[in-house]
Specification:
By secondary structure, the chain is α+β, with helices and mostly antiparallel strands. The protein has ten helices and five strands, in the order ααααααααβαββαββ.
C-alpha cells in the first residue's frame, strides 16, 4: 500500500525562544526600574550601582536556555550583592530574576547540578535574611524565601522530567515505527520467496510434461505422424505457459528450492476449493461458495494464487471472527477473475490451529495479486471484513496428450 509523502503540517505557531526569554528579561527589568522610580525602598537606592545590579539580576535571562548556570551565577550574585548593600533593618525584596534563573538550571541541566544550584541559592538568600534582618522578622523572611526558592527548583525539575518523558515516548514511537516497517519488509521478502518456490514447482511440472511429450513424439514420428503432431502441439502450449510463469518467477525473490508442499501432494488449485471449504467449516466457520460465469481452467500460477488468496482470507476470518459466517464469490469474466471473500459476525478465541499457514495476511495476498498484475482491496465492513481480488487471466486451452 503506497502512501504519498506530504510536507508535515505544524499544528500551531511556535514562538521564537529568544523572543520569549527577551520578553521575560526586559519585563522583569522594567518592573524593577518602575518600582525604583516610584520610590520603593525595598529594592535599594537610585544610585547607578543599584540600577546596574538590578539590570544584572534580570537582563542575563535572555541567555537562560543556552547558558543556564552562568546566568544563575550572575543573577544570584547580583541579587546577593544588592541585598547586602541595602541598609540594615530594611526589607529586602529583590526581582524574580534569580528564581527564573534557578528554574532554568533545574529544567535544562541534570538533577545533580540543579540540586547543587538549589543549595547555593538557598544558602545565599538565607545569609541575606539572617544578616540583614532582625528577629523574628528574619525567620519569617527566611522561611518565605526558602519556600519560593524550593518551588522554583521543583517547577524546573518537573519541566525537565516531563521533557525527558516526551523525548522517550517520541523515541519509542520512532523505534516502533521502524520495527513495523522492518517486519513488513521481512514479510514481503518471505512471501515473495514462497511464491517463487511455488512458481518454480509449476515451471518444473511444465518442463516434465515437455520432456514426456517430446519422447512420445519421437517414438511416433515415423509410424504415427498424427500422434506426433498432437504431442508437438502439446509441447508448444506447455512451453509457452512455462515461459510465462518463468517470467513471473524472475520478478520475485526465490531460493530455488523445488518440491511441492509435502513432496507428493499436487499444487492447490481452484478445483480444491471444496476441500478447503470443508476444512474451514470443520474449524467453526460457516462458509458459502458461489461461482459465477463459465468455470474454465486457468494458468497454474493464477490458479495457485487465487486458491492462496481465498485460503488466507478464510484464515483471517477464523483468526478474528471465530464462529462467523463467510461467503466466497468467484466471478469469471472474459479477461478477469474476481475473488470476493466477506465475513460477518463471529466471536470466540482467536486460535486457528493448523490453518495458520506461512503466509503473511494482507501482505501475502497483495503480493500474490501483484505478481500477475492484479489488484487487491481489503478492509472492514459495518458487519465484518471484506477481501476483493482481481486477477487478469487469458484463455488457457488445455488438451495435453
Amino acid at each position: 500500500m503506497h502512501v504519498t509523502d506530504r510536507p508535515a503540517v505544524r499544528p500551531r505557531l511556535s514562538l521564537n525562544p529568544w523572543l520569549v526569554d527577551g520578553a521575560i528579561a526586559f519585563g522583569l527589568a522594567a518592573l524593577s526600574l518602575i518600582a525604583l522610580a516610584g520610590g520603593a525602598d525595598d529594592v535599594g537606592g537610585r544610585e547607578p550601582l543599584s540600577v546596574a545590579l538590578l539590570l544584572l539580576e534580570t537582563l542575563p535571562l535572555i541567555a537562560r536556555r543556552r547558558f543556564p548556570v552562568a546566568v544563575l551565577v550572575v543573577s544570584a550574585g547580583a541579587t546577593f550583592v544588592h541585598a547586602m548593600l541595602a541598609p540594615a533593618g530594611s526589607s529586602v525584596n529583590e526581582s524574580f530574576g534569580s528564581f527564573v534563573a534557578l528554574y532554568s538550571v533545574a529544567e535544562r541541566r541534570d538533577r545533580r547540578t540543579s540540586v547543587l544550584a538549589l543549595i547555593a541559592v538557598a544558602t545565599l538568600f538565607a545569609t541575606v535574611n539572617i544578616t540583614k534582618g532582625s528577629l523574628p522578622a528574619s525567620l519569617q523572611g527566611l522561611f518565605q524565601t526558602t519556600l519560593v526558592v524550593g518551588l522554583a527548583w521543583a517547577l524546573g525539575d518537573l519541566a525537565r522530567t516531563r521533557g525527558l518523558f516526551a523525548m522517550a515516548m517520541a523515541d519509542r514511537a520512532r523505534r516502533a515505527e521502524a520495527e513495523r516497517e522492518e517486519r513488513a519488509q521481512a514479510a514481503i521478502v518471505a512471501e515473495r520467496e514462497r511464491i517463487a518456490r511455488e512458481l518454480h514447482d509449476i515451471v518444473a511440472h511444465h518442463v516434465s510434461v515437455v520432456v514426456i511429450q517430446a519422447g512420445a513424439a519421437l517414438r511416433a514420428l515415423d509410424r504415427r505422424p498424427d500422434e506426433a503432431r498432437t504431442a508437438l502441439e502439446a509441447i508448444d502450449r506447455t512451453s509457452r505457459e512455462a515461459l510465462v510463469d518463468m517470467r513471473r518467477m524472475i520478478g520475485v525473490l526465490g531460493d530455488g528450492h523445488a518440491g511441492t508442499e509435502d513432496g507428493f501432494t499436487p499444487m492447490p488449485s481452484l478445483d480444491r476449493l471444496g476441500e478447503l471449504v470443508e476444512e474451514v467449516r470443520a474449524a467453526g466457520l460457516q462458509v458459502e461458495l458461489s461461482v459465477q460465469g463459465e468455470r474454465r481452467p486457468l494458468a497454474d500460477g493464477v490458479e495457485l494464487s487465487a486458491y492462496r488468496i481465498v485460503q488466507e482470507a478464510l484464515t483471517n476470518s477464523l483468526k478474528h471472527a471465530r464462529g462467523a459466517r463467510a461467503r466466497i464469490d468467484l466471478r469469471y469474466a472474459p479477461r478477469v477473475l474476481e475473488i470476493e471473500v466477506i465475513d460477518e459476525g463471529g466471536h470466540g478465541p482467536r486460535d486457528v490451529g493448523d490453518l495458520d499457514h506461512e503466509g503473511h495476511g494482507l501482505i501475502g495476498m497483495q503480493q500474490r495479486a501483484a505478481v500477475f498484475g492484479g489488484r487487491l482491496e481489503a478492509g472492514p465492513t459495518p458487519t465484518g471484513f471484506r477481501v476483493l481480488a482481481s486477477l487478469p487471466i487469458e484463455p488457457d486451452p488445455r488438451g495435453v496428450a
